[in-house]
Amino acid sequence: MEILETLRDEIVGFFSINGLVEIIRSGDYHSLRTWSGIQTVLSPLIPFIVIIEILLAFAHKNFNRAEYKIPFFIYIFNRIIGKFISFGVIAFCIGLLSPYALLPVSLTWYWFIYGYIVWEFAHFIYHFLAHKVRLFWCLHSSHHAPEQMNLSVTYAHFFLEGPYADFIRTSICILAGVPPVMLFAIMFIDGTWGGFIHVGENFMKNARFGFLGKFILTPSHHRVHHARNPLYMDTNFCNLLNIWDRVFKTYQPEQNDITIQYGITRSINAGNFFDVYFGEFYYLAKDVARAPGIKNKFLYLIMPPGWSHTGNHMLAKDIRRQYMNTHAGKSLMDSPPGGDQRKSA
C-alpha cells in the first residue's frame, strides 16, 4: 500500500493538482481571486499539455517512445536528489543580499515591469554563461541533448543546474531591489512560459505567433535555440521578453528554408541516460586530465565548449560567423514572409 500511495503522490505532484483538488473538495472558490489561487489553477497547465502532446503524437502515428524516455528518467532522478536544493539557494540569496538592494522597489505595476526586465536580464546572464563556460555547459547540456522537441524536454535538466541558475537570477534581482514577493510571482510566470516554449510540432506546428514574435520569445525562437545548425547555435537566450537578445545581438528568428536539427554537436547516444546526463562531465574530465599545466587544466573549466589548449578548435561563435560570412548575400536576421514551410527534422 505504501508503494501505491507513493506512486499516487508522485503522479499528483507531477500534475501539480493537490491545491486544485483541495479547492474543488472544499467548494470554496474565493481563493481564485488571489495570486496564490491563480497559481494553483495554472500550475497543472504544462503537465497536462505534455499528455495532450503525447496523445496527438499517437493520433498522428508518429509517437516515438525514445523522445520521452530520457527526459522522464531525468525528471525522476532529479525528484529524488535535487528536490529542495533550489529552494535553499533562493532563500540563501534573499537573506544574504536583501540588505544591499540598490533600489526601493514597491509592489506596483510599473515596478513589476521593471522587475520582469531585470529578471530577463538575470536569466540571459545565467543562460549565456551556461553556453559559454564549459563547466556550466556540463550542467546545461542534458537539456539540449534530446534530438526532438516536445514538452518533456522541459524536465530534462541536470539536478544542479537549477541551483546554479537560481543563484545568478535571484542574486541579480535582489540586488536590483526586486522584492521577494514580486520575484516569486515573476518566477511562476516565467517558469510556466519557459515550459510552454518547448511545445512540439505535434501540438503546435507554426509557433511564431505573428507580430507578438517581435516582442516575446516564442516556441519558434526556442526551437532555434535548441538547434545545432550553424546559423542557430548560441542564440535566443531569453525566456519571455526577447529584449536582451536584441540588445546583445543574439536574436535569431527561425528561417523557413533551414530544417532544424535538434541536439548537441558532439556524437551522443541520446537514448542513454548516462551519456545524456553525465557525458559532458566525462569528456571535460578527460580534457582536464590530458591538459599540460595547471593553467590549461583551469582554462578547460571556464573556456567555451570545444576550446582546446592547442588552439586547434572552432567555437560555436566561429562556426556561426563562418556560416554567416558564407551566406552574406542573404538576410538571416529577419524571418522571410510566408507560413511555416520547414520540413520535419
From TrEMBL:
Coiled coil: none annotated. The keyword Oxidoreductase applies. This is Sterol desaturase/sphingolipid hydroxylase, fatty acid hydroxylase superfamily. GO terms for cellular component: endomembrane system; membrane. Keywords: Lipid metabolism, Membrane, Oxidoreductase, Transmembrane, Transmembrane helix. It comes from the Bacteria. Residues 113-250 form the Fatty acid hydroxylase domain. It is a multi-pass membrane protein. It comes from Chryseolinea serpens. The chain crosses the membrane at residues 41-59, 80-103, 109-129. Pfam families: FA_hydroxylase. It is found in: Endomembrane system. One of its GO terms (molecular function) is glyceryl-ether monooxygenase activity. GO terms for biological process: lipid biosynthetic process; membrane lipid metabolic process.
